[in-house]
Amino acid sequence: MADEQFMEQKQQLLAAGFEVEDDVIFADTQEEAVEHFKSNFIYAVEEYNNANFITAFASLVLIAYKKITKKNVTLYPYK
């Protein structure tokens, strides 16, 4: 991260209006880095939604529905 190219690209992104959101993501490939970022983003959104009773309840209902329908599909795979 201390190389000149990284610092130059970082300055270009910051000048374009991008913001530093979290810590550095270490990954072997770009795809792995994007997946890591997305997983952290989804976790943060779920935590935010679950902080409110109404959205937490809606999330519970959706998860329960998905579990029930998945269970029925595995029990009766030919229907």
Explained architecture:
- With 79 residues, the chain is mainly α.
- Helix content is 71%, strand content 0%.
- The chain has helices at residues 4-15, 30-50, 53-75.
- The protein is elongated and about 55 Å long.
- The N and C termini lie far apart (55 Å).
Question: Can you give keywords for this protein?
Answer:
0% strand; single chain; 71% helix; 79 residues; mainly alpha
Query: Can you give the helix content as a percent range?
Result: over 70%
**How big a fraction of the residues is strand?**
under 5%
Give the mean pLDDT.
Answer: 77
* H-E order: HHH
**Could you describe the largest sheet, including whether it forms a barrel?**
none
Structural class: mainly alpha
- Rough shape? elongated
The total beta strand count reads 0
The value of Rg in angstroms is 20 Å
User: Can you tell me the residue ranges where pLDDT is under 50 for at least 5 consecutive residues?
Assistant: 72-79
Total helical elements: 3
End-to-end separation: 55 Å
